[in-house]
Amino acid sequence: MTAAAPLSTPPAAAAEHGTDHVEIAPSILYFGTPVVLLCTENADGSANLAPISSAWALGQTVVIGLGRDGQTAENLARRPGLVINLPGPGLWPAVERLAPLTGRFPVPPRKAAGWRHEPDKFAAAGLTPVPSATVRPPRVAECPLQLEATAERVQPDVSGEFVIVEAAVRRVHADPGIVVAGTDHVDPARWSPLIYSFRHYFGLGPELGRSHRTQTPRAAGRAVAR
Ligand SMILES: Cc1cc2nc3c(=O)[nH]c(=O)nc-3n(C[C@H](O)[C@H](O)[C@H](O)COP(=O)(O)O)c2cc1C
């Protein structure tokens, strides 16, 4: 039996391997994920809208990380319907207009500096609500992808600072401009998420290649990625 490899590489060994990485202690680890606009229902039936970047899909479930003192977390703990709206890169100014706003009143102490209460986030952002088919919160018309969902599990994270939401997607609405015509496939060459990387906004660069698991038909006339 051979000895198990060490889990971490000591500095001397790192130098031997030729890496010039430096050890850093970043205050945030937001390494680049898509922005979603979560629309949820307030206690009075009005809509709240919040930009969130801690969201990822597992099959038909979307897992979302939320600050526990925000209005979105409060809403989802009580009213499970939500819409996960995906903006394209051009919507970053609207996302940034939402950034200093909270639907929470009064503004919680930890948000006192830098945030203000805003009951009408759609108007504040210059975005348009359109009715959903299966849930009460509206969709954001300007977002090319809109996922209607229900929060099936809302639980505290290990730090106690956040809540983790597991949302089951019930219906997907897509702008026809990003769909391979006549199919259920989003065309990755025409869809581009808005990426939030270390608190800066980016779009995607050109396609690098295809996964061996892709089922998206190639659009006629498009260059083949190798
Ligand atoms: C691009 C972007 C990404 C964000 N990502 C998250 C996130 O993943 N989770 C979170 O709780 N807050 C996130 N925030 C902060 C919330 O949007 C902010 O706390 C907002 O006030 C929440 O609104 P609410 O209190 O009405 O729910 C993000 C903000 C921006 C601008």
What is this entry, summarized?
By secondary structure, the protein is mainly beta. It has four helices and 14 strands.
**CATH topology (level 3) name:** Pnp Oxidase, Chain A
In what order do the strands lie side by side in the largest sheet? 3-2-6-11-12-5-4
Q: Could you state the oligomeric state of the chains shown?
A: single chain
CATH superfamily: Electron Transport, Fmn-binding Protein, Chain A
Q: Work out the helicity level.
A: 10-25%
CATH architecture: Roll
Q: How big a fraction of the residues is strand? A: 25-35%
Low-confidence stretches: 1-5
Question: Can you put this structure into words, describing what you see?
Answer:
With 226 residues, the chain is mainly β. It has one domain (28-202): Roll (Pnp Oxidase, Chain A), CATH 2.30.110.10. Helix content is 12%, strand content 32%. The protein is built from 4 helices and 14 strands. The protein has helices spanning 11-16, 71-78, 92-98, 121-125; strands at residues 31-34, 36-41, 47-52, 55-58, 61-67, 81-86, 101-102, 116-117, 129-130, 139-140, 145-156, 162-174, 195-197, 200-202. It has a 7-stranded antiparallel sheet with strand order 3-2-6-11-12-5-4. It is globular and about 50 Å long. The structure holds flavin mononucleotide.
